Amino acid sequence: xxxxxxxxxxxxxxxxxxxxxxxxxxxxxxxxxxxxxxxxxxxxxxxxxxxxxxxxxxxxxxxxxxxxxxxxxxxxxxxxxxxxxxxxxxxxxxxxxxxxxxxxxxxxxxxxxxxxxxxxxxxxxxxxxxxxxxxxxxxxxxxxxxxxxxxxxxxxxxxxxxxxxxxxxxxxxxxxxxxxxxxxxxxxxxxxxxxxxxxxxxxxxxxxxxxxxxxxxxxxxxxxxxxxxxxxxxxxxxxxxxxxxxxxxxxxxxxxxxxxxxxxxxxxxxxxxxxxxxxxxxxxxxxxxxxxxxxxxxxxxxxxxxxxxxxxxxxxxxxxxxxxxxxxxxxxxxxxxxxxxxxxxxxxxxxxxxxxxxxxxxxxxxxxxxxxxxxxxxxxxxxxxxxxxxxxxxxxxxxxxxxxxxxxxxxxxxxxxxxxxxxxxxxxxxxxxxxxxxxxxxxxxxxxxx
Length: 450
Known about the structure:
Layout (H helix, E strand, L loop, with lengths): L5 E8 L4 H15 L4 E8 L3 H8 L4 E3 L8 H18 L3 E4 L2 H10 L7 E6 L10 H9 L2 E4 L2 H11 L6 E3 L14 H7 L6 E6 L8 H15 L7 H8 L11 H4 L4 E6 L6 H10 L6 E5 L4 H7 L2 E4 L8 H8 L4 E4 L2 H7 L6 E2 L4 H13 L1 H18 L2 H14 L50
Parallel strand pairs: 1-2, 1-4, 2-3, 4-5, 5-6, 6-7, 8-9, 8-11, 9-10, 11-12, 12-13
Helix pairs in contact: 1-17, 4-5, 8-15, 13-16
């Protein structure tokens, strides 16, 4: 049913990000498994996603809808953007992330496309409440959210009908971890036998690294403090060790055999976090390496992984922890429970560093427990979150849409169904029958005839 149909996936940027990586994986699946004619555009920013798409032999391009402050230039840019889509003639527009959702869903009826699906990739971080948002939501054909939190946001913020939203979590590839090289260990200042805890997340306000640093301080006090270590060496390490080598004295490396790695781009909270680590006297056991390209080696080096956050959509990093066979200590938020399981034991209440420290300590005390929890996490990822399973659900949603060449059909509201949301929802219900002639594709349930 999807063979030969053209779909245009629209991103904000081709720079590497969780949503962009998911979009590239989805593009590959639709091309290979569903035989669709897939195209990917971005508004700006060359980056590694282009390389992924090139390897998949998927056409890609940068076309901006207009970022000028001049209203006239914006109008001309939008007209040009619409004309380019009309020339491509896609059956479906498939925007990813907030801004592409707003632009594409607001304009899609002018493009000649037959549908535009809103993809909610977070829990509503970039809401402005402006008219464009509301109009875009009203015009969207259908909605996909990657978490129950995203679905609730759409319902509460915009009043989207529950039956017009499908919850489909992120996918993760099952990969075999590499052997950790001595050079990689050296760069991070890790000795064989060290207990390594890792959190992979950019250092910015949406994460809660502060609570993790407090928890790490508590953990060290229970297992042996590292205050006697060489603080100047720690400062050199965390301010640019990727460009240097052999910065470690024996005194520095004898920090107790416990290391916390906060791997992620140095964004708005980096300076604050580094000063906090010094204030807590734990700087010598904390690494701030910035963004690490070889995440697989980092996770192979790790004994226990952490997600400390106030709210999340569907955190890719937790899925990566799981396929690495790692035990995960995380904040008790809906996103973590969706991925790790409702009965998962290693979740700590929000803003509770002592509880998080206890979870880390429990994993530290038992290598056998770490191995067993990691095994269960891997098994769950293999069962629920492989690309074949997840992107098969995307394809099922697209198959519900009858892409007639004669008229603009739509995703019919699923009468008589009530999805509870969550990643374990069954795939979409059977394909709806052809709607009555003239019936529109709104996001509210059809009113009964009087």
